[in-house]
What does this fold into?
Amino acid sequence: MLKTLKPFVLSKFLYGFVQVMSMSSQHALISYLNIAEKATTRDHYRRAIRSIKEMWRNGHPSLRVAMKILRNTSPRHKKQIIKCFIINQLLVGSTKRKSFSEQAGGFYPPGLLVISPSMKCNLNCFGCYAGMYRKDEDLPYEVIDRVLNEAKEMGVYFVVISGGEPFFRKDLLSLFEKHNDMSFHVFTHGGLLDEKLVGRLADLGNILPAISVEGFREETDSRRGQGHYDKVVRAMRLLKEAGILFGYSATMTRQNAEIMVSDEFVDHWIENGCTVGWYFLYTPVGRKPNWELVPTPAQRDTLRERVSYFRSTREMLFGDFWNDGPVVGGCIAGGRKYFHINSKGDVEPCVFCHFALHNIKNVSLKEAVTSPLFKKIQGYQKANKNLLRPCMIIDRPDVYRDVCRMEGVYFTHDGAGNIVEEFTKEIDEYAACYGEMADKAWNEKYCK
It folds into this structure.
């Protein structure tokens, strides 16, 4: 029955249904998944829903996360999540993506894209992956607007906003308002999130911020400037009071690795209201690349194990960008599941891969994501047998060097080529060392 309802009617129905769910017991919430399973048209989502039901029946903490979201999120935010993400991205979007694939000769669009509208930022963090992009060239409003419209034509309604500091763009909220049928996950340092801006985000309802943290006060202030930790905590308090879902974004370095995987770190940010926790590895691209900041293979392997532990014990959702290959089927870059458009318009395979074949100012979104560069990357992805070694930068450096040498490919800022010129020996040694750990874990824990 749900499949035949128009999106607007279905959105209204689901919002009322969610309101009932928020007052229900955990047992009732599990039962409601049966309706969700019948509502979807794709076997992929049906399998995912069945997996969630099994987890919840076994007492997985994600059930309590769901209850927390239902009860603590503002009515406006819940309405927009239902409309933009559940209806448009998952239901309408999946149908449109499948249709697009049939018309495009089998090319299936990525589930999301990352856009960096500006590289302006008032901080000067060491090791910033975006630190070497030009700060005086923002992506024009009309170009972003066109890209978002073309994305929706493909069935993509979920967009990640990065930078630079995104909220330096004063017209960014106008884009969020104009495209109020899309969800936006904004990665921000949090220092600009005051009462006025948080109030505006609450009114719009289709934005989920992720705030960068480096550890606790000492680690965060050391990288981002004295007093920045207090700004982060204040921003989280304002978001929590406004009923806006938000999370943290943590970059692991060799220096803070022990803190990042500690119970105290995760519990601290849960207490501050976080619902999502993102983990990224420091990668030697951007401002003054420093190999001594790259986490060791052993530290990365510990992160993989600890995130698995946190998922089974903490009331929060976790994403591990490098180690979640088994969850998402390997590397997601190169348009397989996502790609990046930087502030100049260069269409990069990944936010950490600073090279491109096309500029979005000169081509359509379809032409960009079906480019020979992305097709070649996806060919390598299909050949990868160990999904714990997904990254072409640090796991498959031979792939990275090969695609960088393609005709027409260019590096997108000064110094971007250092990763294939300056760190060749270190990366090859890293890939070999971590490869042994990953192969062992893959054969023992995943192949079975």
